[in-house]
Specification:
Rossmann fold, alpha/beta, binds NADP nicotinamide-adenine-dinucleotide phosphate, 11 helices
């Protein structure tokens, strides 16, 4: 079946913005839910419907998904206050919302749902983030819908908050105290993530499947920080923090105003290697791009746009 009318929740963000562009190029009818129209201002020139709505309100959510051929949920958060088994923000964004999206789709007869999770998602995982992502997956699996779940490793691209942050910090500080330097990642390019989603949208064989997404190489966190230093030609000295100091550092970031650079929950998430458990599924149709071919273009910060992206990434916006 060809899915033409696509309703995206969380589409104004990093991955969503790339996905929306890909869907528009394919001539899909895209509608996007946002909490504030302003958050999707960079997409307003595209021929899409940006709808300010409260997706946690079942009536508004049902109205938003009505008559869509497919719904894509990209809402996620990396930070939340601590709680049992996970804090309120994680529960709301990763469990309550997918549960409500499933109910709205079932209620309105929308059969196709694509849901974004993360590598390592596990109801018994070591962090609130991973546990809540695991419970969100369960809510999606339990539905009667034609679902596909994606589990990316860390995603990189011009607007990322990961590599841009390491480049930014090395432009400013001579020393970086680095928590979890041996944590493993398999970064995947944002355009490949968007392409994989587009490629399975109409694929019957993808129904009921969970796909991990990663790039061609595995790196430690320390290697990635050093790579960003190479790319911008400025190397900070990396001070490998022992776990006790890493937790103190994270706690102090959590106590400062704004989004923390890193939280204790992020440290807990990094205990699980963010690495694919097997080869990429061929039906995803992607030849993943490497950091080395993509990142230097935006990390070097030559253009106004990349400077703006660095500012956005480090300002937590
Ligand atoms: N980026 C990565 O490296 C990565 C890695 C693994 C998994 N993922 C997952 O992929 C998904 C997309 O990630 P991303 O990096 O594109 O995220 P992002 O840039 O933070 O965008 C997420 C979007 O979700 C919406 N959102 C956030 N909190 C919300 C809330 N409480 N209620 C309603 N909407 C809310 C926001 O839309 P509005 O502001 O317009 O409302 C935002 O644009 C997430 O589920 C994330 O966990 C990302």
């Amino acid at each position: 079946m060809r899915h033409q009318a696509i309703a995206i929740i969380g589409g104004s963000g990093f991955i969503g913005s790339h996905l929306v562009n890909s869907l528009v190029e394919l001539g899909k009818d895209v509608r996007l839910a946002t909490r504030r129209r302003y958050n999707a201002r960079h997409l307003t020139l595209l021929p899409i419907d940006v709808i300010e709505t409260d997706v946690f309100d079942p009536v508004q959510l049902a109205r938003f998904v009505e008559n869509a051929d497919a719904v894509i949920n990209l809402v996620g958060t990396l930070h939340g206050k601590r709680g049992t088994p996970y804090g309120a923000e994680f529960a709301r964004s990763h469990v309550e919302l997918p549960t409500k999206i499933v109910a709205a789709c079932e209620g309105k007869g929308v059969h196709r749902l694509i849901h974004m999770s993360a590598i390592g998602a596990d109801s018994n995982g070591p962090s609130m983030y991973l546990r809540s992502k695991g419970d969100g997956e369960k809510a999606v699996h339990a539905s009667s819908l034609a679902t596909t779940i994606f589990r990316p490793s860390v995603v990189f691209g011009p607007e990322d908050k990961f590599l841009n942050q390491f480049a930014f910090l090395q432009r400013i500080f001579p020393v970086i105290p680095l928590a979890m330097p041996d944590a493993q990642f398999q970064p995947v390019y944002v355009a490949d993530v968007a392409k994989a989603i587009v490629n399975v949208l109409d694929l019957d064989a993808a129904t009921g499947r969970t796909y991990e997404l990663g790039g061609p190489s595995v790196y430690t966190l320390e290697q990635l920080v050093k790579y960003c230093g190479d790319a911008i030609g400025r190397h900070a000295r990396i001070m490998r923090l022992p776990d006790s100091l890493a937790r103190l550092q994270a706690l102090s970031f959590e106590m400062a105003p704004g989004e923390p650079i890193i939280s204790r929950d992020n440290l807990d998430s990094m205990k699980v290697p963010s690495v694919l458990s097997g080869p990429l599924a061929p039906e995803l149709g992607i030849e993943p791009a490497s950091i080395e071919t993509i990142a230097p273009v935006y990390l070097t910060g030559g253009s106004m746009r990349s400077r703006f992206n660095t500012f956005r990434a480090t300002a937590g916006r």
